[in-house]
Amino acid sequence: MRFVRRYPVIIITAVVLAGVLTLHIVGMDAVGLWIATAYVGAFVVWTIVGMVRDVLRGHVGLDILAVVAMVATLAVGEYIASLIIVLMLAGGEALEHFAGRRAKRDLSALLDRSPRIAHVLMHPLAPDSEEVRDVAVDSVSVGDTLLVRPAEIVPIDGVLLSESGEFDESSLTGESMPVARDAGGEVLSGAINGARAVRIRALRSSADSQYQQIVALVHAAEESHAPVVRLADRFAIPFTAVALVLAGTAWAISGDSTRFAEVLVLATPCPLLIAAPVAFLGGLSRAAKTGVIMKGGAVIEQLARVRSAAFDKTGTLTQGRPDLVDVRPATGIDADELLMLAASAEQYSSHVLAEGIRRAAAERGLALHRSDDASEVATNGVVAVIDGRTIVVGKPAFVTSLAPDTVRATLGTGEAAAYVAIDGRFGGVLILADAPRPEAPAVVSWLRAHGIERIMMLTGDARSTAESVAGEVGIDDVHAEVLPPEKVRLAADLRPRPMMMVGDGVNDAPVLAAADIGVAMGARGATAAGDAADVVILVDSLTKVVDAVAIGRHTLRVALTAIWIGIGLSVGLMLIAMTGIIPAVAGALVQEAVDLATILYALRALGGPSTGLVALERERTRSAVATVTDGFGGAFGPAGASAVGIEWKQRKDEP
């Protein structure tokens, strides 16, 4: 019954076809002809109405071929063939739906397992009178204590209160091994609890939690219209023209109008209309399974064609977790006092350096003071009144504008500085270090080796720090100390296109939205960046950029190949049909086999070449072998020995 409700046209067409065939067998051909003509005529009118609607929306497709084929078969008396064409078109829709569900099953799985209920502990501080109440996830407030039972999905982002816990985060990160968390560790919504019940304290609301953000992104990906129709339409006009020319030529040469219908039956457009959408859905599904959410098929096509890339530094090319390595107070100021005042002010900042300063103060046992008047100047710094003193923490230019006696610090490799002013006078500098991600050099190398012609760093950090990190990861085009509007301008001017921007955090949202393809490192819940981006990486690893590009290229290649398979088989069969050896009925059945072949090929988008760390390791191995075998005339000179040594070190350091 579900099949009948979902595909009524198939059932009705099959019944009509069975009835017409019965009438044909008993010799009532005239009645069968009238029934077939009436039914197919109604179907043609319905198809033409849909075509007109598409034209009004600016979409000219391939339905004209199907309409001409149905009309032509009726005109020459091949009414059984016309019914088979209708059945084939309706069956094509069913095949597309089935293949589409197969292709996007990983996307659907994310939606189906979205947590809806949370167990809230009403009296968490009184175990003897503990009461558990089930509430909707949306009703949970930040700070509530939740009970997560064994094998349940964590409903909301929280901090683990139990001594320890083990969680399956495969749906979030793609990592198949369970992850252990200790008390105080963050547990992400969507993770599956292990064998022990645990308690967590809600850290974020449902809407801001990791899994709900993923679900929102998946909904956006499902609702966005992929360019698959437009991709097929690029072939629509020439394919239609070729089919009509071949059919007309066959008619003209043979003098038999039936030949026109026999050729057009084999030109029905199902391969172009179905195979490409299935391939793109498969690409979206495969990306989701690897921890990459793409917001529609248009993104896949852009990723496949990307020719330049720009990267933010902090949290993208680097670990995004800077640690305090030195405190340099001005004369007359105590180092611990400087750190305490700076950390107190940084309580009101969302900048990545702020977390490192606060963490350092906590590790030294410094009590932070609250402020009744604090504000953050986006991308520049924070101003707060602490114990009656005005504390400014931020970039050197910003602090200098408020404390002219500010002295610039000398920074080492990979270091960043947070400058502090106290009551309008220079207070000192806090030095933090944020190491590059270990996979960053390999990612940059892979992109450059696979057709990305220009790679740039765009960062608001100091030039010395930016150039140091860029040198370590292999980027020589560096733009440092730039504000978000400047990032947008530089990204707009970057050539060749399409251009990909990779970043994280609120300050990257404008440039991510402005890029041809915005890629957000969303593992830490960068909501603004994720909303603005076209691709969101759910795993805290830069290798997923390689995954995204590789999947995009593989998917587009499969879609185009499926289209060409359909076109090639159809044109070949039309050429054969011009000779008259393929009757219209047989041609309609053969075309259904062509549809099936192209759809099965399109499902190859669910698989593909190795990506991520596997692909990067293979790339490095090939590079090392090529260096060694480049010839005794240079490979073992200083440059050759250095290159081999670097390759060996990269592999040796990896787990």
Question: Can you walk through the features of this model?
Answer:
The chain is of the alpha+beta class. It is 53% helix and 16% strand. It has 25 helices and 22 strands. The strands form 4 sheets. The chain has a 7-stranded mixed sheet, with helices on both faces. A 6-stranded antiparallel sheet has the order 2-1-3-9-4-7, with no helix packed on it. The longest helix is centred in the last third of the chain and has 35 residues, at 543-577.
Describe the structure concisely.
It contains 25 helices and 22 strands. It is α+β, with helices and mostly antiparallel strands.
Strand order of the largest sheet: 10-22-21-20-11-18-19
Kindly estimate the percentage of residues that lie in beta strands according to DSSP. Answer: 15-25%
Number of separate strands? 22
Could you describe the largest sheet, including whether it forms a barrel? 7 strands, mixed
Distance between the termini: 54 Å
Instruction: Report the C-alpha radius of gyration, rounded.
Output: 32 Å
List the helices and strands and how they pair.
Blueprint: H1 2-6, H2 8-25, H3 29-56, H4 63-75, H5 79-103, H6 105-112, E1 117-121, E2 132-136, E3 145-148, E4 158-160, E5 164-168, H7 170-173, E6 179-182, E7 186-187, E8 192-193, E9 198-202, H8 210-223, H9 228-254, H10 257-265, H11 270-289, E10 292-294, H12 297-305, E11 308-311, H13 313-317, E12 323-329, H14 335-346, H15 352-363, E13 374-377, E14 381-386, E15 389-394, H16 396-402, E16 415-422, E17 425-433, H17 440-449, E18 454-458, H18 463-473, E19 477-479, H19 484-493, E20 499-503, H20 509-514, E21 517-521, H21 527-532, E22 535-537, H22 543-577, H23 584-602, H24 612-628, H25 638-653
Parallel strand pairs: 11-18, 11-20, 18-19, 20-21, 21-22
Antiparallel strand pairs: 1-2, 1-3, 3-9, 4-7, 4-9, 5-6, 5-8, 10-22, 12-17, 13-14, 14-15, 15-16, 16-17
Helix pairs in contact: 2-3, 2-5, 3-4, 3-5, 4-5, 4-10, 5-11, 5-23, 6-8, 9-10, 9-11, 9-22, 10-22, 10-23, 11-22, 11-23, 12-22, 14-15, 22-23, 22-24, 24-25
